[in-house]
Amino acid sequence: MYQKIDFDFDKKPKGNLVDYIKILFLPVVLALLFAVQNQIFNIWLGIYSKTYSARLFYVSLALGIVFYGPSLLFKKKIRYWYFTIISFLISVVFIAQFLNYNYSQSFLQFSAIKYLNQAGSVLGTIKTLVNFKLLLFLSNFLLVVALFIISAKRKKKEFILPSWEKVIIILAMFAIVFFGYKYLLFSEKKEWGSTSRLYTDVYDLKALVGKMGIMNFFLEDTFKYALRSSLVTDSDKTFLKNWAGKRTFQSSDQYQKNKFFGLEKGKNIIIIQVESLENAVINQKIGGREITPNLNQLAKDGMYFNNFYAQVGPGNTADTEFSTMNSLYPLPDDVVFIDYAKNQYNALPQLLKSNDYETYSLHGDVPTFWNRSNIYPGLGYQKAFGLKDYKITSPVGKGPSDLGDEDLFSQSLTKLHGFKQPFLATLITMSSHTPFILPDNLQTLPISENTTLDKTQQNYLESVHYTDKAIGEFIDSLKQNGLYDNSLILIWGDHGSFTNIAQAFGKDNILPELNNSMVPLIVLGSKDLKGTIDIPASQLDIYPTIANLLGISPLKTVLGQDLLNTQTPIETHFELVSGGIDAILTPDLAYQAGEDGLFDHGSCKSLPKLKALPISDCKNIYTQQANNIKASNIVVRGNLLNLISK
Ligand code: GP9
Ligand code: MN
């Protein structure tokens, strides 16, 4: 007698081709749909670029697989729930980003999540932006739900992938994902020589989203945000509290006795931040002609700071905007405008807004450049005019946009007329942006063929000469229409030109580290604001100086000093990336770091004679400044302005 043995060990149904197609169908379709959604998202928002189309496709497909691929690991029921949740989240992010961009020309950053409760206030506007296009971003979710319902009705036995096939599919998915991201990195490297524009040297978020897609951008930004929270430790916070506790401020009564307090009270503030304008070109001639005749005249008419410095990190123009508007240091290794856009600030526009000013920014670039559209509201700008608010009558330059400074100034003038006074208007020029190339008809500075200046330096001077003319015309128009008399006007260079123009004119700085950072600051107001001031000063000093002139008592959140009322003027410069101080100037000391950046290996000299002193003579000032920079960095990285404002 023998018993019949059932050898069917595997009770699971065996798969045929149809089963395999069925199980792979949904994740593959959803991943492809995801790649298409990313492309159309960019097309509809006008940020699509043909050059980046392949990068965008592969990298979106890769992310689509990362999102939907793991579904294959689960059994049917969990798989459908997985699809439902993932596709729902994807739809939500797509729709939120789409509406937000239409509303504010900016991309949502994870750091903005705490403002979700304010979404209600813009709901009315958001509603008007809702349209059928959103169905595309819901289509993945709708597809999943539809298939979920259909499959729930069918009680067919489930086909489960055998383990070894799972392994093969997972490996295949890895390969596609790897290829997608590798392709992006490879294309970047080919185009720019490095991949840093994807993470650190990011300028325009529009271009970033153009090549990596909104979801990859959102994830990258979220990861960065999550990692960042560990950057500020408890001991940093203790340091900051101690540092803030030791600061001394003049009493309001004492402060208000200074002769500049409230001198310009109630006046409009017009700021002109000039691209790459170096101090070396002021009062400088070439071929017998002044390079900047208009600025030279304005420097005579008003107060001219000729020992004044910019400090920028990787955010260039945006770092100057940051440090001038907040009187805090930019970061040496991050773009504050991008990575810390949603911090709490107490910026100059905010302060003015709370003093009944209207606050405007006017700049001829797209609003996503340097993430301005995301940070400006938090700085207190009520409205920012950008490229689309200007007409390009004659294209200028090869900089970030074609809008020439003459167009910027003449059309801004009309806008200024419409503002309710008093107002703050920050104008940021662009024509003297690297590579400084102007159309031939705008190159009017006669530079001799025998010049010893190289071509870049010549182009630079031409572009600065053109911008100077545009500024001159603008100031003349302000005088004609009466705005000049009731405005405090400040003009400064945002940073150096990196053309070595100062050295070419024999104007080397006493500290070589500062050669590329000396920019002019001109202040035009009542007749008491007059003269050339040579105290060392920095862009952090602008905010407290304006506050004094407007009659606003000293602020605890500023790190700079009021230049009209300080006994201890100072310029401190730090190196990019390392953040270490490489130069300090006071009226009587010049500190220079050693080549290795170490204090002890540096030099300390007396001013004005540059007599060598023991390095220990610079120790106090160095320690004080190092602490200031450290405190500023902690404030920014930890969003801790409240710890120093009491
Ligand atoms: C364009 C401009 C950029 O928006 O501000 O200048 P950059 O940061 O390159 O000096
Ligand atoms: Mn700039």
Classification by helices and strands: alpha/beta
What does the overall shape look like? elongated
Q: Say how many strands there are.
A: 17
Please state roughly what percent of the residues sit in beta strands, choosing from under 5%, 5-15%, 15-25%, 25-35%, 35-45% or over 45%: 5-15%
How many domains? 2
Give helix % range.
40-55%
Question: For the record, what is the CATH homologous superfamily label of the largest domain?
Answer: Alkaline Phosphatase, subunit A
Mean pLDDT: 92
User: In angstroms, what is the radius of gyration?
Assistant: 29 Å
Give me the number of helical elements.
Answer: 20
Order of strands across the widest beta sheet? Answer: 7-6-8-1-9-10-4-11
**Distance linking N and C termini:** 95 Å
Any idea of the CATH class of the largest domain? Alpha Beta
List ligands, each type once.
(2R)-2,3-dihydroxypropyl phosphate, manganese (II) ion
Instruction: Kindly report the CATH topology of the largest domain.
Output: Alkaline Phosphatase, subunit A
Main beta sheet: strand number and arrangement?
8 strands, mixed
CATH architecture of the largest domain: 3-Layer(aba) Sandwich
Contiguous uncertain segments of 5+ residues: 3-10
